[in-house]
Write a structure and sequence with these properties.
4 domains, five-stranded mixed beta sheet, alpha+beta, Molybdopterin biosynthesis moea protein, domain 2, 16 strands, single chain
């Protein structure tokens, strides 16, 4: 009986505790149901049917009651209803946040600018190359056809050579063009003209022969010079000038004078080449007295001999027959080599033949024109080399 009583008491105790717990739990649920939940900004915006920005502005300005849970803004539904019942009101606009002050920057340094002076006006470029007297000489080019000019002229509006055409003035010469020979000769005759200003690099001078009213060029040889004076010192003008090298022989003295002026007086020096006299073989027959006077007057540069018998065709044109005839001929005058000449074998000397058996003929006339210049050139060159060897005697060969 005791054990059954204990079981019944324990059972009753358990039932009583269970009832107490259930009753306590149900009471909490009831109390929790009576408490009003908090609304977030989004919930309040949906309830008021406005934007979340409006709800936030109302809370910040204090128009609607709110509370903060941590850093979050929360509302009760009753607080919103109170604001609605009070008639709402103007929605405040929050003042913009003040901008942070800009950092202080040092004032920029002001540097004094240099004073720029106005550039002086450039001188106007002249439309002429050179003014000679009252004439403004220009370079004239024939531009007809649009291909330019292969020959340039000098003049004002018309060239000095009096050539007619369609002329265009220019200041710069074309590299492929040369100056007109007649214009070049005409400007050299003007004493005030300066040839290098027309971009003339080199002038070749050819002697003119006046025959009647026309002047023809003697093509026996040309000289180098500046247009008025030759390097060899000849002054028997007038001269015809050209920039192209003539198709004829250059004056012997001018050629060696150019080499002398271009010599290098430093470590190296030019070794002179051998200079030889001119050997002259005259055919049998009478001799022109003028020709004999030229030969006798130049005993150091002309070695002349006359054949005892008429020269054959092979003797006049054949080398071996000519040498045999020359050595067997009688000398004219007394030949004596000039000092300073470095002579080679006679077979390598220059030779000339005069064959006029019936008196004075064309070969004699030609010899009278050529031999004085030839003899004078050899004598000048010999004196030049004598001076040359004297100046370079103390120098050692490299």
């Amino acid at each position: 009986m005791d054990e059954e009583a204990d079981d019944s008491a324990e059972t009753a105790l358990i039932q009583a505790f269970t009832y107490f717990v259930r009753s306590a739990a149900s009471g909490e649920r009831i109390a929790a149901a009576d408490v009003e939940p908090l609304l977030s900004i989004a919930d309040a915006a949906r309830y008021l049917n406005v934007s979340t920005t409006t709800v936030r502005n109302l809370a910040v300005s204090g128009k609607v009651r709110s509370t903060r849970v941590g850093d979050r803004i929360r509302f009760r539904r009753g607080w919103l209803d109170e604001w609605i019942d009070a008639g709402g009101g103007e929605i405040p606009v929050p003042a913009p946040a003040p901008k942070p002050p800009a950092p202080e920057r040092p004032a920029p340094r002001t540097t004094a600018r240099p004073i720029h002076r106005r550039a002086e006006p450039r001188p106007t470029q002249p439309t002429y190359i050179q003014q000679v007297g009252d004439r403004e000489l220009r370079l004239l080019s024939d531009r007809a056809g649009g291909r330019g000019a292969s020959t340039w002229h000098i003049g004002v509006r018309a060239p000095l050579c009096e050539k007619t055409g369609r002329w265009t003035s220019a200041l710069k010469r074309s590299p492929r063009g040369f100056l007109c020979k007649s214009c070049l000769t005409a400007i050299a005759a003007l004493p005030e003209a300066d040839l290098p200003r027309f971009d003339i690099g080199r002038v070749f001078m050819m002697r003119l022969s006046q025959r009647g009213e026309t002047a023809t060029v003697i093509r026996a040889g040309y000289h180098a010079g500046d247009g008025r004076k030759t390097l060899c010192g000849k002054e028997d003008g007038p001269w015809a000038l050209t920039e192209r090298e003539p198709h004829t022989k250059q004056c012997f003295v001018c050629e060696h004078r150019e080499r002398w002026e271009r010599r290098d007086m430093g470590q190296n020096y030019i070794v002179p080449r051998p200079l030889t006299p001119l050997r002259i073989l005259l055919d049998a027959g009478p001799i022109d007295p003028r020709l004999a006077a030229v030969v006798v007057g130049h005993p150091g540069s002309l070695d002349a001999r006359q054949a005892m018998e008429p020269l054959t065709e092979d003797a006049m044109w054949g080398t071996r027959d000519w040498e045999r005839a020359f050595h067997s001929a009688a000398p004219i005058g007394q030949f004596t080599a000039l000092p300073g000449l470095k002579l080679e074998r006679p077979e390598r000397w220059s030779s000339y033949t005069v064959s006029d058996r019936n008196g004075i003929g064309p070969t004699t006339v030609r010899a009278l024109e050529l031999l004085p210049d030839w003899a004078d050139g050899i004598e000048r060159a010999a004196a030049l080399y004598a001076r040359w060897s004297k100046e370079s005697s103390g120098r050692k060969r490299p």
